[in-house]
Amino acid sequence: MKRVVHWFRRDFRITDNTALSAAIAAAGSDGEVIPVYVASDWKGSHEWTGPARQEFLCGSLASLAKNLEAIGGRLIIRRGDAVAELEKLAGETGATAIFANRDPDPFGRSVEARLETMGAERGITVSLHKDACIHERDEALTGQGTVFRVFTPYSKVWFGLPKPMPGPAIRKLSTPSAPVSLPLPQLSDWGLSPAAAIPEPGERAARERLKAFVSGPIASYGDARDIPSVAGTSQLSQDLRFGLISPRQIYDAAKKVEEGLPPEGRKSIMKYLAEIVWREFYMQLLWHYPELLEQEFNSTWRGMEWPGLKGHPDAFERWCFGMTGFPIVDAAMRQLAATGWMHNRARMITAMFLTKDLHLDWRLGEAFFMRSLVDGEIASNNGGWQWSAGTGADAAPYFRIQNPWSQTKRYDPEGLYIRRWIPELKNVSNSSLLEAPSDGRPIAPGYPAPMLDHAAERDRTMELFARHKALGARS
Ligand SMILES: Cc1cc2nc3c(=O)[nH]c(=O)nc-3n(C[C@H](O)[C@H](O)[C@H](O)COP(=O)(O)OP(=O)(O)OC[C@H]3O[C@@H](n4cnc5c(N)ncnc54)[C@H](O)[C@@H]3O)c2cc1C
Question: What residue spans define the domains of the chain?
Fold first, then answer.
């Protein structure tokens, strides 16, 4: 009887799971599949991971374990170095192959390389599959076969490629009884405790979110997506991050509803799918340029000085805690702390504020977001931060600096988002949320006055970038 391992990584679902389906096919009708998750064994603080995402991971694993049991399988939990644990498990069970879906980030890639070496040494087949994206790093390329560094032509090629259909739901799985499993991971295993009201984890909850979105809001996504007080986006980012839903399922569901919609609705669907393409654009960039995690994508800005806001050594802490005195920025940071999620428009506003008003290094914000976000995705987060800092691929040019007050007028003119997240501002007038107080005094008890003058800091940003550019031109 043939035995194979399926290693769950960021693909916690039993529907349309490429490697799991391949593992079952390889085991054959009388074979056995050993589904395993290897929990990491770090303890205490972690620069790139925090409680919201780990809690969502634990809940999603618990749900996956139930789903596997319902089809006759059993999720095995191990802890430690993934390659060493997989080697042990294959040895214990006599498994001849290990199946997994590829992870697009550099850490995942390095583990895959070690796994392949181990497999070659031990005579175990290692079978890695495309699953986290619709089109992987080498599919949407320029006519010369090179990597796109700009989004629009990339997306044209991406949309022009034939699309894979979602695979079936797995109905039956047979797992041997022998392998020992550790208990399902708990948040406390990492020395963490719950910190935010995260979305319901698990494959069923993710499918319901998709269903709710495509059965209504998707048709007005084009207009609603920029208004942070409205639930006008799909809120599927954590589900994509942990593979509770696949991008193929999303694409397919969106295309199915497109047919019955008027032109405006169809435009909304295209706008929505373009966001799925941004995700893949950033993934392929990071795959080809892993150095993005260390340095500015645009070489002009490498070695930039990020001196911080003069006279404010506490600027980063005030940004993190939502106490800058800029209501739209603070509302967003408090939404992040309370829910582990932040609206995309608000992510752009807060990221620009950190880099262009506080003059702090985008890497500080990038790491803070990774620790706080339930949907923290290395490629999209790096892409979003470098876009906002003006240093990235196809980024906002450095001189296009968002004004937090104008952004409020445009996207939260009635202060609905601001008041939801900043209770101190519940009773202040709308007009006081839309511009800096003329007397520079706090607008409500317990809420600070703006910590800076946006126009002055905008000028300073222009100076810093211009000076760096001139230095580069001279050297
Ligand atoms: C500074 C900054 C940091 C970000 N960090 C992350 C992150 O860690 N993880 C993450 O998933 N997204 C990140 N984004 C992108 C975006 O903000 C979120 O994907 C989006 O807000 C998630 O909400 P949603 O699922 O309702 O999105 P929707 O608007 O419904 O979009 C659907 C899906 O498309 C993808 N998507 C949407 N916008 C973008 C984008 N600009 N770039 C890449 N993919 C996108 C996401 O997977 C999202 O779930 C970041 C953006 C910025 C500006």
Answer: 3-132, 133-165+204-288, 299-474
In CATH, 3-132 is 3.40.50.620: yes
Place of tokens 């070659």: 120
Could you confirm whether 344 is annotated as catalytic?
A: yes
Name the closest-CA residue to atom 16, ligand 1: 344
Q: For strands 76-79 and 32-39, give the pairing.
A: parallel
First vs last Cα of the chain: how many Å apart?
A: 67
Distance, CA 220 to ligand 1 centroid (Å)? Answer: 18
* Assigned fold of 133-165+204-288: 1.25.40
Q: Is 158 a catalytic residue?
A: no
Please tell me the total number of residues recorded for the chain in this structure: 475
For residue range 15-62, list pLDDT tens digits in order: 999 999 999 999 999 999 999 999 998 876 778 889 999 999 999 999
Tell me the pLDDT tens digit for each residue of 366-391: 999 999 999 999 999 999 999 999 99
pLDDT band of 393, cuts 50, 70, 90: confident
Q: Which residues line ligand 1 (CB under 6 A)?
A: 225, 233-237, 240-241, 275-276, 278-279, 282, 344, 347-348, 351, 369, 373, 375-377, 380-381, 383-385, 388
Instruction: Please name the residue ranges forming H helices in 390-443.
Output: 404-411, 416-421, 431-434
**What are the Cα distances from residue 12, in Å, to 83, 353, 377?**
19, 35, 16
Residue nearest to atom 48 of ligand 1 (CA): 237
Using an 8 Å Cβ cutoff, are 182 and 323 in contact?
no
Report CA(345)–ligand 1 centroid distance (Å).
10
48 counts as catalytic: no
pLDDT at 227 over 80: yes
Radius of gyration of the chain (CA): 24
Under CATH, which architecture does the 299-474 domain have? Orthogonal Bundle (1.10)
Of 117, 125, 122, 128, nearest to 96 by C-alpha is 125
Task: List the residue whose alpha carbon is closest to atom 12 of ligand 1.
Answer: 380
Q: How close is the Cα of 257 to the center of ligand 1, in Å?
A: 22
Task: Please check the confidence at residue 396 and state whether its pLDDT lies above 90.
Answer: no
| Phi, psi angles (nearest 5°) of residue 179 | -60, 135
Residue type, 407: Q
Closest residue to atom 18 of ligand 1, CA basis: 344
